[in-house]
UniProtKB/TrEMBL annotation:
Residues 159-279 form the HD domain. This is HD domain-containing protein. The lineage of its organism: Bacteria, Bacillati, Bacillota, Clostridia, Eubacteriales. The keyword Cell division does not apply. The keyword Cell inner membrane does not apply. Keywords: Hydrolase. It comes from Fervidicella metallireducens AeB. It holds the Pfam family HD. GO terms for molecular function: hydrolase activity. PROSITE patterns: HD. GO terms for biological process: rRNA 3'-end processing.
Amino acid sequence: MLNLKTNDRIENQPVIVRQISKKINQNGKEYYSLQISYGIKNYDAKIWNSNIGVSEEIIPGSVVNIWGVVREFKGNLQIHIDKILHISNPSSDLLEKITPSCSLEEDKLAKRLAEIIGTIKNEYLNQLLNNIFSSPDIKEAFYKKAAGVEIHHAYTGGLAQHTIEVAETVIQLCKIYNYIDYDMAVAGALLHDIGKIVELSNFPENKYTTLGRLLGHINIGTQIIEKYTSQINKFPEDVKLELQHCILSHHGSLETGSPVLPMTLEALVIHNADKTSAELNGFYLAIQRDVKNDDWTDYNNTFKRYIKKS
């Protein structure tokens, strides 16, 4: 963890560049504005001296070493960079050290996923889930990708963590509302964001891929369901359609990106479980990332409010 304080001097510090842009101040002088990260923390940074050599290789997702000093600006920490050097081939150890990651280990996430799949009695859904999550391409990406670029579960392992949180919430709601189809609701929960294995790139970049921007994870997810159900002999058409509906409607409204509204009990419970997981983690990340020197975060544009840290 990089815990910085006002007036700290930074020497040869590796960080990930999240954003970088050249701007012009009121006096017509050029400067660079950056957002950099180390682990879960994001920092605002500036290069006021435009004569400092900024390589063309320094783009969002690149790993760099920086030198500079920490200042305070409007209650927030701001790093004034004196020197910045691109790291061409960062080692796996360095990437693991500076990349934001899930607090849960991959083997524990995989074990819980297998346990949840084991509770599903519908033979077609059970086989479908086992086929999807045992596929080498999907398995590798599922435990490495984030669930979002910035807002929620935006770290390695975040997609798997978010998926299991949604499934766990659905399981508990099924205990309360026993008229929900458990197998369909839990299967839909486990597959609702499966398209994100393609929609988002790997860390340290973690941005939308071209396919992700053009199609989005919801459409990609329904395509994955189409592909894997076609490989199972006599997979029921009605089960496939209801499962695809759960994916298509899980954002809950047309305004938030769902092509259709939830029209089954199972789709509705998945939407609400997804919303709960995303918002709670979004709040938590906002608190963890904040570098303001008081008990409240800076104004959060996503949630349109200040968030109390303690």
